[in-house]
Each structure stands twice: as structure tokens, then as C-alpha cells.
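Request:
You are asked to prepare a plain-text protein record giving the amino acid sequence and the C-alpha cells, at your earliest convenience.
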Amino acid sequence: MWKVMERRRKRDIALAVREGITLALRDFYHPPVPDPEVKVGNVKATSFYITEGDWRVHINVKDVPPLEEEELVAFFRSVCRHELGHYVVCPYDVGLSALITGSASKEVGPELAGFVANFFSDLIVDYYIFERHPEETVWEKKITINWVAKNVGAPSELWMVLVRCYEKMWKVKLAEELRATRIVEEAASRIVRTIRRGGVLSEDGWPTKARRVAKVLKPLLEELKKPGNAEGEYMTSPTGKRVFIPEDVARTMRRNPLSPPLRKEGGCERAAAKYVEKGEKLKDFVDAARAAGLASGETEILRAWYRAKANMRIKVKIRSTRRRGAELQVYPDVWRIEDPVEELDIPLSFQTFPKLIPGVTTKKWVKASGEVAGGEEAPPDMLIVLDSSGSMGWRSDTPDDTPFDLALVAAFSALKFAMSGSCKVAAINFSDRVIVCGWTRERVKVENTLLKYQGGGTVLPVRNIVEVTKRNGMKALILLITDAEISNWDEAVEELGRLVDMGHCVCMFFIGGSPCMLGERYKKFVSAGGKIYFIPSVKELPDVVIEEVKRYYR
């Protein structure tokens, strides 16, 4: 008899959930979506999520207040409004979720940042819903809070702060028998003032506000490390660390409160795009991605970051004229008496011979445009040769705008062009070791090779470059990105010149280089069609590489 009643109760709850979801979707004017997937009982916790692509709603229900059928529908309609609010109000996308989580992480660390992100987002969403459906929202929240209070022992301070935030924000009484301490009252007042300052729904201020909320909650969250006899359980954060969460908090927030909202497949790249768009630093993004559980490891995080940086660079319109300071295809030649006097390079001439003899020992620098002819010729495969030596200046604590950082942006930009043309790409990362990725159309393999910073010496792997190029058997565009502190330049220029003679396109990009560093040996290389770019300012590097590469991939 009891089993029959239990089955009937579960069925009634499932029907109420389905109808509540349907009504909540209408409240948000959402287009028709597939039938929701509903599970009642026999689940670890109450949870709600939406799958991308088909927008199917999934909801698991662990326990429900004792309500009649019509009340159940109204209850779940309000609950689902809240959950849908995370997708359309706050944080509404993975990028903003990561910004909020990352900002909170600066105060409470990655293990607890997700909790603050959920706490903050819940208040923002419920403010929005209350403004539109005040009576239903207050009614549902009263039922939830008092149902939790009835079924859990002594309330935790964290739960009391959450409840008092709602009461202060809405100016209503929700908990029937709540006796808040002075600490709770002060914390709730500070949080509500923070959220209201500058407008509750002003999303530009959300990351900063989340950090301030984290600062207020930090003393209370620290107490979770020593829970004593408090009711609750240990839950897993996105970083893998287990953290104690009070039972009343978990049941009121209806999910693992440590898991930030909107963790979706592919979310790391979306979050990276948001961070790049906002001009944030790489280190901040790495911390946020870890705290939000957006990636399985640092390499995946770095891949997402440099893809986003490359996409941003490519979208920026590159001026048709050459950028100042970025000189190309430079080689020394004889300055003759009929040449303009301003072209005479006296220091270079004296390097050649201690006496100036016009037309014999006088020297000038020749610059050629090197335009690529148009036509229907198939774009070439690409070999990226990247210097990751110590002189490239990567710093793990502040990597932004170092030579290796900008070299990666340039390399990832070039890679995007080649992949968009369905071309094969190979990569060589060189320093003390030579790391080779053979010809492939798998973007991740190439990216992983480029991302390895070695920080050792600088010997150009000429033999490897020649071997990889010949192994493909097709015309290749070879991009060499280095800071020009190469110890075997004589050998390199000779071998690379031979590749040019074989029909391959070889482009050298010298970070911090100057035409004065070259000698006569480069004349043959450039005359044959090789290209040399000098990049006095490393910040120019990505744009110069993009401008060159886009000639080959339309």
C-alpha cells in the first residue's frame, strides 16, 4: 500500500515539475524546446541544467515540501524561473560566469570561488524574478526556507546570511523563527548594499561586486574548514578539493554550491574570449578557469587563451600601409654615386672596409615589397618554427606581452589561417631540445607543440627544418619566429636559402632585430625570394605575421 502511494506521489511530482517547467519557459518567452527530462527520488541531490544544442531541460528532484497538486505546479514554476534565470539573467554565459568566479577566487581561493559565484548569482537572479513576479517568488522562497529549517537542526551562520540577504533585499519576512546574530546582520547588510550599488542588474559591475561579496563571506567560509558537529557533507569543488557544506545551505541552493553556474562543454574557449575582450591578464584567466572547472589541465587553458588572442588579432583591421618599424626583405647592397645620399649607411660601410670608396665599399640597405602574386594557386602547407629559448622572456607569473607570449599569439594566428584553408601544418619548437610535430590537420597537436616553453639556449635546428619540409613533398610556407640571438646563423641562412631555391616560401621574423645585424650573406637569400622582417617592438609581431600570412590564405 505504502509503495503504491509512494509511486503515485513520485508520478504527481514529476507531472508537476513538467508543467512548472513549461510555464516557466513561457514566462521567459522561450521558443518551443524538447520535453524536459525529470527524475524524482533516487537522486543524489536536487539539480537543474540545460543541454546545449537541443535546449532540453533536465531536473532531478530529491525532496519536495508537502504541497497539493496545484501548489506543486506553482512551486516548481517559481523554482524553474530561478534556474532559467541563470541562463538569461546572471551569469547567462560561460564567459561572464568565469569572470565572476575568477574575481571571487582572488579573495577566497579557487576551492570556494564557485560557492561565492552561486551565492552572488542567486541573489541577482532572484532580484530580477522578484521584480516581475513578487508574490509567487516570495511564496516559493518562504516554503523553501521554512521547509529546510524544519528538517535541519541548528541553522548555520552561512545559511542565516543567505536568508537575511533575501529579507533585506525584498524587505519581507521569510524565515518564521530566525534569530540572526550581529555578525550575520552586518554581513547581510554589507552584501545587499554591495549588490544594490550602481544598479543590481548592471553586469559590468558584477565581477567587482562578487569579489566584495567574497570578502564579506570569507570569515564564514573559513569556519567550514572545521565543521565540528554541524549537519552537512563534504562536496567536491572544480579543483578536486573536498569542502564541507552545511546541509541547510545545500538544500536551499539546490545544487552542489561549489560548482559555478553554466559549466558547459567548450566553455573554456568562450570564457577566454570574454577575458580577452575585457583586456584581462592571462594569469587571472588561468585562475578563473581552474576555479570554474572549465578545463582538465593548464595546457587546455593556454590553448583556449591563445586561440582567443589570435581570433581577436585577426578581427582587428590591419592597415594597408606598413607599420612603422616593421621592415622587410632587407639586404645590403653597394651604394653608388647616383643613389640618394640619405640611403648611404656609413656605419655599415666601415664594417665592410675601413676606407670609403664610392661605388666600391660604400653600402646601403635594399628593401623590397615581396608581394605574392594572385591567382587560383592552392594555398601552401605551413611549417611554424618557434624559438622558446630563455631570451624569449616568458615569465609564468606575468607572461603577458613577453616575446614568447606575443610569438604564441602570432603562431596561433598563422595556424588559424592555415587550418581555415584545410592545409596541413607542422611545427618545430626549439631551444635546448627540438620538439617536432609532423604534418597534420589536427590543430590541437600543433598547438600543444607550440605551447611548450623551454627557456634554454638558442640553436636553430636547421636539419630538422629541412627534413620536415622535405617529408611533406609539397610547397610549404615556413615561418621562423625568433629573437635573432641564434648561434648558427651562417649554416641557417645557407640551408634556408636552398629551401627557397626549391620553391618553398621562407619568412623570418626577428624580434628586436635591426638591419645592421645582417651582412652580405643575406643578399642571396632575399634575392631568391626569402623574406626577412625586423620587429623592433615585439608588440608589432602578431600584426606583421598576420599581414604576411594572409597573402597566402584568402
